[in-house]
Design a protein that fits this description.
Length: about 500
């Protein structure tokens, strides 16, 4: 990648007419690239190109579309090292973690290769005398995706393969924090044979987002990010007549039952809480111990947290990288301070951590807090950092009530050996994605991803079958072919199926 990161419009990089801002390496605090930001004029130009390109792309046969995605899959596999390294530089996450998100993104690309099967309509013969009926699904037109910093490859991959495979043109507005991966993907699509203008990348902030949400020629908007911005995108784009799926924030709970393998549960919760420095919408910022296992679990999770190596993402020895910005680091420290002042007990303290040689990096150590009131903001709010709150309840019903009292409903997990409690939990918990002895229950690409309550605005979950429904509209066709000499008397009654 060059020093400047520009928009990708109509098959090439363009600087556009907006301003610029630095892209920083979270491990060093140093500027590593310059990003060109878009404005309404940039959006207008990209949409104009997309409208023309989409008309032609929608006419490309399913067989030829499928071949593009088979080629794209291999190109992404071949470019995994390149994409992972640039993600690590700009996001901060470890290279191994970045490769993991690329692999998960590939699942949706693989789902897109089966579009010939998934776009099949239904057909019924002779629904009325001499009348047949069938359904077909067609693309919406030009659609936009607005994606967060925490998964600069995977989350866009939840959107664009399905949107493109169903015949739409796709405009991607990635996070300004780590935008370079999106430009690599655009280049790979071109190499795979996708026509120019069908996939484009526009960089920018709120003005660019609002321009996409209100543009007359954008038919749908997909969003993943924080709940306040998800509400804004949903309201703005819906008011402009768009179809919208806006995935918001989370505060996921992991319930640890007395019959669970405590060592196993602690290792899995640690992975969910501290992997990628907790910067995942499916992270586990809350553990709930049930019954008399609280002290045993605290000891086990403390041992897990204290053995983690914190360092830069390009160091193979690193377990936990920095958070994305200095502000994110300060938020974790502030929430720890406030919890302690409110009577919470800091069991593992990540404040004051300095990584030698990276003194200007955004590092904060894994943090574990307990004995915190359930009304405190450190428990109720989304931290998006390596901070785990451990709550204690007496029984399963109390745990279920605690989880269901959250305004969020993205993901949750239960650790238990009891099929009875596992089944009750999956039936009664008010959450969209549930793991049973699985800490981060992100569905595979041929299922769909999405939460409940304040974690999702709009009807459709992302990728998989619901993603296909989101990016298409259905037609129902009723057909009669009378013979040339057939006469039928007209009727003023509503048609029936006689």
């Amino acid at each position: 990648m060059g020093h400047d990161v520009k928009h990708w419009i109509n098959g090439r990089e363009e600087a556009g007419t907006g301003s610029t801002q630095p892209i920083l390496n979270p491990a060093t605090g140093e500027e590593i690239r310059t990003l060109h930001l878009g404005d309404a004029a940039t959006v207008d130009r990209a949409v104009e190109v997309a409208v023309a390109a989409q008309r032609e792309w929608a006419q490309v046969s399913l067989a030829k579309r499928t071949q593009v995605f088979y080629r794209m899959r291999q190109l992404v596999i071949d470019a995994t090292d390149e994409i992972a390294e640039v993600i690590s530089q700009e996001h901060g996450k470890t290279v191994g973690d970045a490769k993991g998100e690329i692999a998960r993104g590939l699942e949706t690309l693989e789902f897109a290769t089966s579009i010939t099967q998934d776009l099949k309509g239904g057909f019924s013969e002779n629904v009325s005398t001499g009348v047949d009926a069938h359904t077909m699904r067609q693309p919406l037109g030009v659609v936009a995706g607005i994606t967060p910093f925490n998964f600069p490859a995977m989350v866009p991959f939840w959107m664009h393969p399905v949107a493109l495979a169903t015949g739409n043109a796709f405009l991607l507005k990635p996070s300004e924090r780590d935008p370079s991966a999106s430009n690599i993907v655009a280049r790979l699509y071109q190499e795979a044979g996708l026509p120019d203008g069908v996939f484009q990348v526009i960089h920018g902030g709120k003005d660019t987002v609002d321009a996409l949400c209100t543009h007359d020629d954008v038919s749908a908007v997909s969003f993943v990010g924080s709940t306040p911005i998800a509400k804004h995108v949903h309201a703005t784009a819906s008011a402009a007549g768009k179809r919208v799926q806006a995935l918001g924030g989370a505060n996921n709970h992991a319930v640890v039952m007395p019959d669970a393998n405590i060592e196993f549960a602690a290792s899995q919760v640690a992975s969910g809480a501290f992997g990628s420095a907790g910067e995942r919408c499916m992270a586990v910022p809350v553990a709930v111990t049930v019954g008399d296992i609280h002290d045993e679990f605290l000891a086990a999770i403390t041992a897990e947290a204290e053995k983690l190596v914190v360092g830069p993402g390009d160091d193979e020895k690193t377990d936990m990288p920095p958070v994305i910005t200095a502000e994110a680091r300060e938020r974790v420290i502030r929430m720890t301070d406030e919890a302690e002042k409110a009577g919470g007990r800091v069991v593992v303290d990540g404040r004051g951590l300095v990584v030698e040689g990276y003194e200007n990096g955004n590092f904060v150590g894994p943090t574990v807090i307990t004995d915190l009131d359930r009304s405190h903001a450190t428990y109720t709010d989304e931290v998006f950092g390596p901070l785990l709150v451990v709550m204690q309840v007496d029984n399963f019903d109390d745990a279920l009530e605690l989880v269901n009292s959250s305004p969020f409903g993205n993901g949750t997990a239960i650790f238990t050996d009891s099929g009875h409690y596992a089944r009750r939990y999956q039936e009664e918990v008010q959450v969209g994605m549930i793991g049973i002895n699985v800490p981060i229950p992100t569905p595979v690409g041929y299922y769909s991803f999405g939460g409940w309550k304040d974690s999702l605005f709009g009807e459709h979950h992302a990728h998989g079958p619901e993603g296909l429904s989101f990016y298409t509209k259905q037609k129902a066709v009723t057909t009669r072919w009378p013979s040339q000499n057939e006469t039928v008397e007209s009727s003023m009654s509503f048609p029936t199926h006689d």
